[in-house]
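Input/output pair, single chain:
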Amino acid sequence: MTDTTAAPVTAPVSPAATARLLAEAARAVDAPDLVLAVSRNGVRTVHTGGSAEPGPVPRELMAYELGSASKPYAGLLLARLVAQGRVRYEDRAADLLAPGFPVHPAVRRITLRHLLTHTSGLPGLPADFYPQAVPRWSTDPYGGYPADRVVRAFLRARPRHRPGTRWHYSNFAVSVLGHTLAAATGTPWEVLLHQQVLAPLGLDATRVRPGPDGADAVGHRRDGTPVPALDTGGFTAAGAVRATPLDLLTFLEAHTEGAAGSPTDSSLAAALTEVTRPVLRRGLRHAHTHTLTWFQHPTPYGPVLFHAGATLGQQAFLGFRPGTGLAVAATATRRVHRADTFVATAYGLLTETR
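Output:
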Protein backbone atom coordinates (compact mmCIF):
# COMPACT_ATOMS: atom_id res chain seq x y z
CA MET A 1 0.00 0.00 0.00
CA THR A 2 1.30 3.46 -0.84
CA ASP A 3 0.16 6.94 0.08
CA THR A 4 0.42 9.46 -2.71
CA THR A 5 -0.82 12.45 -0.71
CA ALA A 6 1.54 15.34 -1.35
CA ALA A 7 2.13 18.10 1.14
CA PRO A 8 1.78 21.55 -0.40
CA VAL A 9 4.57 24.05 -0.07
CA THR A 10 3.91 26.46 2.78
CA ALA A 11 5.68 29.47 4.18
CA PRO A 12 7.83 28.87 7.28
CA VAL A 13 6.29 29.64 10.66
CA SER A 14 8.40 31.65 13.09
CA PRO A 15 9.18 30.39 16.61
CA ALA A 16 7.34 33.43 17.99
CA ALA A 17 4.21 32.54 16.04
CA THR A 18 4.49 28.94 17.22
CA ALA A 19 4.85 30.09 20.82
CA ARG A 20 1.66 32.14 20.52
CA LEU A 21 -0.13 29.16 18.98
CA LEU A 22 0.91 26.88 21.85
CA ALA A 23 -0.09 29.42 24.49
CA GLU A 24 -3.52 29.74 22.93
CA ALA A 25 -3.93 25.96 22.67
CA ALA A 26 -2.93 25.50 26.31
CA ARG A 27 -5.95 27.51 27.44
CA ALA A 28 -8.21 24.69 26.23
CA VAL A 29 -6.65 22.06 28.53
CA ASP A 30 -7.28 21.83 32.27
CA ALA A 31 -4.55 19.82 34.00
CA PRO A 32 -2.21 20.27 36.97
CA ASP A 33 0.77 20.01 34.61
CA LEU A 34 0.73 20.54 30.86
CA VAL A 35 3.48 20.56 28.25
CA LEU A 36 2.91 21.31 24.56
CA ALA A 37 6.02 20.97 22.41
CA VAL A 38 6.56 21.48 18.69
CA SER A 39 9.61 20.85 16.52
CA ARG A 40 9.93 22.32 13.03
CA ASN A 41 12.96 20.90 11.26
CA GLY A 42 14.71 20.60 14.60
CA VAL A 43 13.75 24.09 15.86
CA ARG A 44 11.83 23.51 19.08
CA THR A 45 9.17 25.55 20.83
CA VAL A 46 7.90 24.39 24.23
CA HIS A 47 5.01 25.74 26.30
CA THR A 48 4.51 24.65 29.89
CA GLY A 49 1.65 25.41 32.24
CA GLY A 50 -1.06 23.93 34.39
CA SER A 51 -3.15 24.62 37.46
CA ALA A 52 -0.56 23.28 39.93
CA GLU A 53 2.32 25.32 41.27
CA PRO A 54 5.55 24.53 39.38
CA GLY A 55 7.93 22.26 41.27
CA PRO A 56 11.72 22.37 41.54
CA VAL A 57 12.09 20.38 38.31
CA PRO A 58 10.85 22.20 35.18
CA ARG A 59 7.83 20.49 33.66
CA GLU A 60 9.58 19.84 30.36
CA LEU A 61 12.34 17.94 32.21
CA MET A 62 10.03 15.62 34.13
CA ALA A 63 9.29 12.13 32.81
CA TYR A 64 5.64 11.47 31.97
CA GLU A 65 3.82 8.14 31.66
CA LEU A 66 3.00 7.50 28.01
CA GLY A 67 0.56 4.61 28.42
CA SER A 68 -0.39 3.35 24.96
CA ALA A 69 1.84 5.96 23.32
CA SER A 70 4.59 3.49 24.30
CA LYS A 71 3.59 1.27 21.39
CA PRO A 72 5.51 3.21 18.70
CA TYR A 73 8.67 2.35 20.65
CA ALA A 74 7.76 -1.34 20.49
CA GLY A 75 7.06 -0.98 16.79
CA LEU A 76 10.38 0.67 16.07
CA LEU A 77 12.17 -2.03 18.05
CA LEU A 78 10.53 -4.80 16.02
CA ALA A 79 11.27 -3.01 12.76
CA ARG A 80 14.94 -2.66 13.67
CA LEU A 81 15.27 -6.32 14.68
CA VAL A 82 13.72 -7.24 11.31
CA ALA A 83 16.14 -4.93 9.50
CA GLN A 84 19.00 -6.66 11.31
CA GLY A 85 17.73 -10.06 10.22
CA ARG A 86 17.21 -11.26 13.79
CA VAL A 87 13.47 -11.89 13.38
CA ARG A 88 10.89 -11.66 10.59
CA TYR A 89 7.47 -10.05 10.63
CA GLU A 90 5.97 -13.39 9.59
CA ASP A 91 7.64 -15.37 12.38
CA ARG A 92 5.02 -17.12 14.48
CA ALA A 93 5.00 -15.85 18.03
CA ALA A 94 4.23 -19.17 19.71
CA ASP A 95 7.16 -20.84 17.94
CA LEU A 96 9.55 -18.20 19.29
CA LEU A 97 7.99 -17.90 22.71
CA ALA A 98 7.43 -21.57 23.56
CA PRO A 99 8.73 -23.93 20.83
CA GLY A 100 6.82 -27.19 20.73
CA PHE A 101 4.19 -26.10 23.25
CA PRO A 102 0.67 -27.25 22.22
CA VAL A 103 -1.52 -24.25 21.40
CA HIS A 104 -4.80 -23.59 19.61
CA PRO A 105 -4.36 -23.64 15.80
CA ALA A 106 -5.34 -19.97 15.58
CA VAL A 107 -2.69 -19.06 18.16
CA ARG A 108 -0.15 -21.01 16.13
CA ARG A 109 -0.88 -18.75 13.13
CA ILE A 110 -0.34 -15.46 14.99
CA THR A 111 2.74 -13.66 13.68
CA LEU A 112 4.78 -10.79 15.04
CA ARG A 113 3.10 -8.52 12.49
CA HIS A 114 -0.34 -9.58 13.71
CA LEU A 115 0.58 -8.77 17.31
CA LEU A 116 1.89 -5.30 16.50
CA THR A 117 -0.87 -4.29 14.10
CA HIS A 118 -3.75 -5.40 16.36
CA THR A 119 -4.85 -8.07 13.88
CA SER A 120 -4.03 -11.15 15.99
CA GLY A 121 -7.61 -11.88 17.00
CA LEU A 122 -6.67 -11.53 20.68
CA PRO A 123 -8.87 -9.47 23.02
CA GLY A 124 -7.76 -6.15 24.45
CA LEU A 125 -6.74 -7.85 27.69
CA PRO A 126 -6.77 -11.49 28.84
CA ALA A 127 -10.13 -12.72 30.17
CA ASP A 128 -8.68 -13.58 33.57
CA PHE A 129 -7.14 -10.12 33.91
CA TYR A 130 -10.32 -8.47 35.15
CA PRO A 131 -11.06 -10.40 38.37
CA GLN A 132 -7.75 -9.33 39.90
CA ALA A 133 -7.86 -5.84 38.38
CA VAL A 134 -11.37 -4.63 39.18
CA PRO A 135 -10.89 -4.36 42.99
CA ARG A 136 -7.98 -1.98 42.41
CA TRP A 137 -9.00 -0.46 39.09
CA SER A 138 -8.25 3.11 40.15
CA THR A 139 -4.93 2.38 41.87
CA ASP A 140 -3.04 -0.61 40.44
CA PRO A 141 -4.92 -2.77 37.93
CA TYR A 142 -1.88 -4.15 36.09
CA GLY A 143 0.69 -4.75 38.83
CA GLY A 144 -0.87 -8.04 39.93
CA TYR A 145 -0.62 -9.59 36.47
CA PRO A 146 3.06 -10.42 35.86
CA ALA A 147 4.89 -11.39 32.67
CA ASP A 148 4.63 -15.15 33.10
CA ARG A 149 0.87 -14.84 33.45
CA VAL A 150 0.64 -12.83 30.21
CA VAL A 151 2.60 -15.55 28.41
CA ARG A 152 0.44 -18.34 29.85
CA ALA A 153 -2.71 -16.47 28.85
CA PHE A 154 -1.44 -16.21 25.28
CA LEU A 155 -0.49 -19.88 25.01
CA ARG A 156 -3.94 -21.00 26.15
CA ALA A 157 -5.86 -18.31 24.23
CA ARG A 158 -8.73 -18.92 21.83
CA PRO A 159 -8.63 -15.95 19.42
CA ARG A 160 -11.97 -14.35 18.58
CA HIS A 161 -11.12 -14.08 14.90
CA ARG A 162 -8.72 -15.70 12.46
CA PRO A 163 -5.40 -13.81 12.64
CA GLY A 164 -5.07 -11.15 9.97
CA THR A 165 -8.80 -10.77 9.26
CA ARG A 166 -9.95 -8.08 11.72
CA TRP A 167 -8.48 -5.11 13.56
CA HIS A 168 -9.06 -5.00 17.31
CA TYR A 169 -6.91 -2.81 19.56
CA SER A 170 -5.08 -5.06 22.01
CA ASN A 171 -2.73 -4.25 24.86
CA PHE A 172 -2.54 -8.00 25.36
CA ALA A 173 -1.15 -8.59 21.86
CA VAL A 174 1.55 -5.91 22.03
CA SER A 175 2.58 -7.16 25.47
CA VAL A 176 2.94 -10.67 24.03
CA LEU A 177 5.09 -9.16 21.26
CA GLY A 178 7.43 -7.76 23.89
CA HIS A 179 7.83 -11.10 25.63
CA THR A 180 8.29 -12.85 22.29
CA LEU A 181 11.08 -10.53 21.18
CA ALA A 182 12.78 -10.97 24.54
CA ALA A 183 12.61 -14.75 24.12
CA ALA A 184 13.78 -14.64 20.50
CA THR A 185 16.84 -12.53 21.32
CA GLY A 186 17.60 -13.89 24.79
CA THR A 187 17.51 -10.31 26.08
CA PRO A 188 15.11 -8.79 28.64
CA TRP A 189 12.66 -6.32 27.09
CA GLU A 190 13.97 -3.33 29.00
CA VAL A 191 17.56 -4.05 27.94
CA LEU A 192 16.55 -4.78 24.36
CA LEU A 193 14.61 -1.52 24.06
CA HIS A 194 17.53 0.43 25.48
CA GLN A 195 20.10 -1.21 23.21
CA GLN A 196 18.10 -1.01 19.99
CA VAL A 197 16.07 2.20 20.34
CA LEU A 198 16.74 4.44 23.32
CA ALA A 199 20.54 4.53 23.31
CA PRO A 200 20.97 4.84 19.51
CA LEU A 201 18.54 7.77 19.42
CA GLY A 202 20.10 9.47 22.44
CA LEU A 203 16.95 9.13 24.55
CA ASP A 204 18.71 9.43 27.89
CA ALA A 205 15.58 10.63 29.72
CA THR A 206 13.36 7.77 28.53
CA ARG A 207 12.85 4.60 30.59
CA VAL A 208 10.28 1.94 31.46
CA ARG A 209 10.45 2.26 35.25
CA PRO A 210 9.97 5.19 37.66
CA GLY A 211 13.06 7.35 38.07
CA PRO A 212 14.61 9.00 41.12
CA ASP A 213 12.42 11.00 43.47
CA GLY A 214 11.30 14.23 41.83
CA ALA A 215 12.19 13.09 38.32
CA ASP A 216 8.71 11.86 37.36
CA ALA A 217 5.50 13.79 36.89
CA VAL A 218 2.69 12.87 39.30
CA GLY A 219 -0.64 11.91 37.79
CA HIS A 220 -3.99 13.11 39.12
CA ARG A 221 -7.58 11.94 39.15
CA ARG A 222 -10.30 14.19 37.81
CA ASP A 223 -10.82 15.63 41.30
CA GLY A 224 -7.15 16.61 41.48
CA THR A 225 -5.97 13.98 43.97
CA PRO A 226 -2.65 12.37 43.07
CA VAL A 227 -2.35 8.74 41.94
CA PRO A 228 0.60 6.39 42.41
CA ALA A 229 3.09 5.74 39.64
CA LEU A 230 1.89 3.19 37.11
CA ASP A 231 3.01 -0.42 37.48
CA THR A 232 2.35 -2.17 34.15
CA GLY A 233 3.06 -5.67 35.46
CA GLY A 234 3.52 -8.00 32.50
CA PHE A 235 2.20 -5.44 29.98
CA THR A 236 5.48 -3.51 29.72
CA ALA A 237 5.74 -3.36 25.93
CA ALA A 238 2.20 -2.00 25.62
CA GLY A 239 2.42 0.91 28.02
CA ALA A 240 5.41 1.27 30.34
CA VAL A 241 7.51 3.97 28.64
CA ARG A 242 8.14 7.18 30.56
CA ALA A 243 9.84 10.13 28.89
CA THR A 244 10.41 13.86 29.14
CA PRO A 245 8.73 16.04 26.50
CA LEU A 246 12.16 16.93 25.15
CA ASP A 247 13.01 13.27 24.67
CA LEU A 248 9.64 12.77 22.99
CA LEU A 249 10.59 15.44 20.46
CA THR A 250 13.92 13.70 19.86
CA PHE A 251 12.10 10.43 19.22
CA LEU A 252 9.68 12.10 16.80
CA GLU A 253 12.38 14.11 15.04
CA ALA A 254 14.12 10.85 14.17
CA HIS A 255 10.98 9.91 12.19
CA THR A 256 10.87 13.10 10.13
CA GLU A 257 13.04 13.71 7.09
CA GLY A 258 15.57 16.48 7.32
CA ALA A 259 15.64 16.70 11.12
CA ALA A 260 19.04 17.28 12.67
CA GLY A 261 20.69 14.19 14.09
CA SER A 262 19.11 11.66 11.71
CA PRO A 263 20.49 8.18 12.45
CA THR A 264 23.39 6.93 10.37
CA ASP A 265 22.96 3.27 11.37
CA SER A 266 21.45 1.54 8.33
CA SER A 267 19.17 -0.81 10.29
CA LEU A 268 17.80 2.02 12.42
CA ALA A 269 17.29 4.24 9.37
CA ALA A 270 15.49 1.39 7.61
CA ALA A 271 13.30 0.80 10.66
CA LEU A 272 12.35 4.48 10.91
CA THR A 273 11.29 4.41 7.27
CA GLU A 274 9.42 1.12 7.64
CA VAL A 275 7.23 2.27 10.54
CA THR A 276 5.89 5.17 8.46
CA ARG A 277 4.61 2.96 5.61
CA PRO A 278 0.83 2.35 5.50
CA VAL A 279 0.17 -1.37 5.93
CA LEU A 280 -3.58 -1.74 6.49
CA ARG A 281 -6.91 -0.01 6.20
CA ARG A 282 -10.03 -0.70 8.26
CA GLY A 283 -13.47 0.63 9.07
CA LEU A 284 -16.27 1.92 6.87
CA ARG A 285 -14.96 2.34 3.32
CA HIS A 286 -11.52 1.54 4.73
CA ALA A 287 -11.30 5.08 6.02
CA HIS A 288 -8.79 4.34 8.78
CA THR A 289 -5.17 3.85 7.77
CA HIS A 290 -2.43 2.37 9.94
CA THR A 291 1.29 1.87 9.66
CA LEU A 292 2.99 -0.84 11.69
CA THR A 293 2.54 1.24 14.80
CA TRP A 294 1.02 4.66 14.04
CA PHE A 295 -2.49 5.84 13.21
CA GLN A 296 -2.45 7.82 9.93
CA HIS A 297 -4.86 10.55 8.82
CA PRO A 298 -4.90 12.74 5.71
CA THR A 299 -4.71 16.52 6.07
CA PRO A 300 -4.42 19.46 3.65
CA TYR A 301 -0.71 19.50 4.51
CA GLY A 302 -0.08 15.82 3.88
CA PRO A 303 -0.56 12.68 6.00
CA VAL A 304 -0.04 12.84 9.76
CA LEU A 305 1.03 9.91 11.93
CA PHE A 306 0.14 9.89 15.62
CA HIS A 307 -0.54 7.86 18.75
CA ALA A 308 -2.11 8.89 22.05
CA GLY A 309 -1.94 7.20 25.43
CA ALA A 310 -3.37 7.47 28.93
CA THR A 311 -2.67 5.97 32.34
CA LEU A 312 -4.53 6.26 35.64
CA GLY A 313 -3.59 9.92 35.95
CA GLN A 314 -1.64 11.07 32.91
CA GLN A 315 -2.01 11.52 29.16
CA ALA A 316 0.39 11.78 26.24
CA PHE A 317 0.19 12.52 22.52
CA LEU A 318 2.88 11.95 19.89
CA GLY A 319 2.56 12.93 16.26
CA PHE A 320 4.48 14.02 13.18
CA ARG A 321 4.13 14.76 9.49
CA PRO A 322 6.56 12.66 7.45
CA GLY A 323 8.78 14.63 5.13
CA THR A 324 7.90 18.04 6.59
CA GLY A 325 9.99 18.19 9.75
CA LEU A 326 6.93 18.89 11.93
CA ALA A 327 6.53 16.98 15.20
CA VAL A 328 4.20 17.51 18.17
CA ALA A 329 4.55 16.07 21.67
CA ALA A 330 2.12 16.80 24.48
CA THR A 331 1.76 15.59 28.06
CA ALA A 332 -0.72 16.27 30.86
CA THR A 333 -1.17 15.06 34.43
CA ARG A 334 -4.89 14.50 34.64
CA ARG A 335 -6.85 11.36 33.94
CA VAL A 336 -8.76 11.32 30.67
CA HIS A 337 -12.54 11.80 30.72
CA ARG A 338 -15.30 12.05 28.14
CA ALA A 339 -15.24 15.83 27.85
CA ASP A 340 -11.46 15.99 27.87
CA THR A 341 -9.86 18.32 25.32
CA PHE A 342 -6.25 17.21 25.58
CA VAL A 343 -6.01 14.86 22.59
CA ALA A 344 -8.09 17.11 20.34
CA THR A 345 -5.90 20.08 21.23
CA ALA A 346 -2.65 18.26 20.54
CA TYR A 347 -4.04 16.73 17.35
CA GLY A 348 -5.08 20.20 16.19
CA LEU A 349 -1.51 21.43 16.55
CA LEU A 350 -0.43 18.64 14.24
CA THR A 351 -3.17 18.90 11.64
CA GLU A 352 -4.09 22.57 11.57
CA THR A 353 -0.56 23.97 11.65
CA ARG A 354 1.42 24.70 8.53
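Confidence is low (pLDDT under 50) at residues 1-10. The two ends are 26 Å apart (CA to CA).
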